[in-house]
Fold each of these.
Amino acid sequence: MLIYGIIVLYNKIFEKTSYEALMENGVTLIVCDNSTKDMGNGKKVADAGAYYISMGGNKGLACAYNRAIDMIRDELSPDKHDYVCLFDDDTEIPVNYPDEIKLRHEPILLPIVNDGIGLMSPCLMKDKIVKRFGSVKEALRADERQITGINSCMAVRWDCYDNYRYDENMFLDYIDHAFIFEMRKRGIYPTVLNYKIKQHFSAVEDTKKRAAKRFAKQKADLKIFYGDRKLVYYYIIMRKHIKLALKYRDIRFLK
């Protein structure tokens, strides 16, 4: 079994030291660069022994994932039992995480991911409404048919990508939940690993200005995710408006 790691950069310099141990542990790393300026990452990634894909600007997360998956398929000839692991550039990845993946065979693996609030992933998705679990114990015993999770360190068995492409109309948010929702239709469900990872999630640590910009982009992705379920979409957006207004104590978020 081989593990292909995909990481997407945006206006950040590739740091070899952050991923060297993973590559030494057998991970083939593919770096997709969504940067809007030259960060010199092409040479840095090549010198580190990883594969580099320049996206020619910020094309979004879904587009970058599709490009990386195409490259793996066309150039690296993966086996159906290999895994693709999605890494965020703001995640603290334990060097022995690949060893955990190598012990498994299930189609989708979700580790325990904590952020500044608490348990961030896996989470519950009922009627396409995503909520946090109250505890790790609750997540571990939940019905797999109702579980979803974020991209960060999600491991996907290669055969799950047969006839699947991330929706490039979605720029960033909820492409992970859209992926799992589609897998549910195929009778494929995630498995929760009792393995903990730390995530520096921007929605938790953002400044007010950055949060406002992020929310403006998120609305477009959520509109695609919920499709014709407009009432659910408006409910989710209203809830996020209120949450941001309370967090930053600014009624302008209610407009």
Amino acid sequence: MKEYELVKKQLEREHNRAIDDIMYEHYIEQDLGPEVGAKKLGIPCRAFVYFV
């Protein structure tokens, strides 16, 4: 769980938004699957699924 917190803080800092907003944009609005969304964000696929 600690590694997910690090990924969360990194994403929130890079995008200046909450993790919920980032994931909503990529998973719902852009309709990206876990592999493509994770690659676009530069995070592991497991982390993408965890936050979704």
